[in-house]
Design brief:
With 273 residues, the protein is an alpha/beta fold. The chain has one domain: Purple Acid Phosphatase, chain A, domain 2 (4-Layer Sandwich), CATH 3.60.21.10. The protein has 6 helices and 14 strands. The strands form 3 sheets. The chain has a 6-stranded mixed sheet.
């Protein structure tokens, strides 16, 4: 199975790139299943119901969120009506929605998708992500209950993400980090067969400060004072993510590659016309 994972969609630029280019990218990559992190798709903070529908209609099979899961208030009710949108597993127990779900690709193969929030350097305390992930993976062994399993670890610290990758090695097809908006160069298959990358990067304008228009972040760094709100940069987005190929019998990775398409970053994959 070929699974495409795209990192945090950032504002209008990221949404536009998904709607304009995702279908062609999926066709070029021959992707069987596509997961998109929609954490920052609405003004850089959260995801509205309307924008969730837009990303799903564009070809995402599943949307993951993150620490800004409910910044847009209509997501509080929408997430219970749309099973393709997942919030973090270790969010507050009273939170609506679910942190994992088993999906099917076009051939009926089962794909487990789950998301967890890291604890290190995050502004709010969340439940232990390791025990939350462990319980789900034990109940859905790849190659048994499901043909593939993908974990989106939404965290600040690369050390925590790496620890999660090794913790899940041999039990997941792909462990990929989100949240920092900067694609890392450590794409690999771990010793027991789990594909890993510390951060997928963002789907947004990289002529920016992690997706935000440069002026206000730079002003705050230089003066220590804020004047305006952060607003997403509006230039052409780079679609950043990971493509993993899995063995249906074992659920483990047989190949993985980083993906950067369009925009300012040097491409790691181009659509072949």
């Amino acid at each position: 199975m070929r699974i495409l994972f795209l990192g945090d969609v950032m504002g209008r630029s990221g949404r536009r790139a998904i709607t304009d280019r995702l279908a062609a990218l999926k066709a070029s990559l021959k992707a069987d299943f596509t997961i998109v992190n929609g954490e920052n798709a609405s003004g850089g903070m959260g995801l509205t119901a309307a924008h969730a529908k837009l990303l799903l209609d564009a070809g995402a099979d599943c949307l993951t969120l993150g620490d800004h899961a409910f910044d847009q208030k209509d997501m509080l009710s929408f997430i219970d009506t749309e099973p393709r949108v997942l919030r973090p597993l270790n969010y507050a127990r009273e939170a609506p929605g679910r942190g994992f779900r088993v999906f099917s690709d076009a051939r009926g193969r089962k794909v487990l998708v789950l998301q967890a929030l890291g604890q290190v350097f995050m502004k709010r305390p969340f439940d232990d992500p390791f025990s939350a992930v462990d319980a789900v993976l034990r109940a859905h062994p790849p190659g048994g209950m499901v043909q593939a399993a993908v974990l989106d670890i939404h965290a600040e610290a690369t050390s925590e993400k790496m620890a999660m990758g090794h913790y899940c090695d041999g039990r997941a097809s792909l462990v990929v980090g989100t949240h920092t908006h900067v694609p890392t160069a450590d794409t690999q298959i771990l010793p027991r067969g789990t594909a890993y990358q510390s951060d997928a990067g963002m789907c947004g304008d990289y002529d920016s400060v992690i997706g935000m228009d440069k002026a206000e972040p730079m002003r705050r760094f230089l003066t220590g004072m804020g004047r305006d709100r952060f607003t997403p940069a509006e230039g052409e987005a780079t679609l950043s993510g990971v493509l993993v190929t899995t063995d249906d019998r074992t659920g483990l990775a047989t190949a993985v590659e980083a993906l950067r398409d369009g925009g300012r970053l040097v491409p790691t994959h181009g659509i072949k016309g």
